Amino acid sequence: MMNVDKAYYLKDLELAVLLSMKGMDELYGFRMKQVRHPKTEDVYETLFALSKRGLLTFREEEGNESDRKRIIIEPDLDAMLEIITEAENVLIYSSERRDHPSRCIYLGKCAVFVSAQGADGVINRVSACRMEALPEMICECGFWPDELAGGSDVAPGEPMGGGCDGAGGILPDMIREDAVTDRLKWVSVEDKQCVRQYLLIRDGLYDYCAVTDRDGRHIESCLSHRIPELLRRDLSAVFSDTVS
Fold first, then answer.
1. Given this model, what pLDDT does residue 33 score?
2. What pTM was computed for the model?
3. Is residue 243 part of a domain?
């Protein structure tokens, strides 16, 4: 089973080479700034660098009389790359807050996070979490009001529904675009379309989360401390075997 406690830091070209080895010719979710028709020598240097780090192993093919070798990717990293290449759904997180980097989350048996690190954004952090832990992990990554980061004020057994009642009354149906600080887009890879979008909104007296459909129409709202429950509900509808 994949070790979800590991994280890998890969340059753009390193990640591109690894994904191409898995047969991926198009990556949905983010762009690699430094990959533009790489030279052959750069690819060989990248393979050598990955080998030195223990992320690639070169083995002689059994029964092969030639000098051909088989390239094996480190098992946990290979499992994460497998999820990226086979994902049918991707969550794309972006924020107006500078201390919250953008992330792409590829959904499968586990959820694999890819996020650009550093000012130039050419190092990618690749990590995974179990699907049942994904709602809380999304919040830890930034889709959560800072003032609630120390803990949720959710009351046990308190029901959640569209247009939840809060201290400020019924949440508004009209979404002020300038009040949106964070976005989480659910994208279908096959259709290359946004299925729904979750918006974290800071609008005066309270923070809340609004959900819109693929056409941008407002579906429902809930108070910000309900975000993990809202995500768990929607994820469970698609990944019933892995999210509970």
1. 61
2. 0.84
3. no
